[in-house]
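Journal club prep, notes for RB
We'll compare a predicted complex against what the paper describes. Inputs for the fe (ii) ion case:
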Amino acid sequence: MPETDGSTGTRGAPGAAPVIARTHISLLVRDPEASAAWFEDVLGMKVTARGPQWVFLSFGRKHHDLALIRAEDGAEQGGLGLQHYGLEIEGGVDALRRLYGMLLTKGVTVVKTTDHAIGLGVYFEDPDGNRFEFFAETVVDDEEATRLLGEHQAPSRTIDLDPLYS
Ligand SMILES: [Fe+2]
């Protein structure tokens, strides 16, 4: 017997799939205020709200895109959970090279620079070792990019990317 008649919006019903307008991410960090200053500096974010144990930051359009929450004392990065959070940039490969130069100038830990066949990525870490990726799409057609990712087995080939400093 079906679980629903298709009109109640419960599991299995038409229309039950979420329609996501945007995403945010929440990270456990050692020092929310220190990390907030880092995210303001490196990602150009703005603090929109704060409490004793947390800080919210925004890229400028919504109330928050990132929540920083104080971790338990002695907490460490583990092998499960978030691997990286990707930030698609505007401005193409030259903008990515400028951001790479900015990261290097600010002494940010850059993990790798990669070619994904459909774009280029620069991976870096926040002060707690949470990994982020700036990525610039080089294949702008999403259907074509999806096909290429499958065809090339979603590659992440290390490349030399020349940073720009202007
Ligand atoms: Fe990614």
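Talking point for the session: Confidence is low (pLDDT under 50) at residues 1-7.
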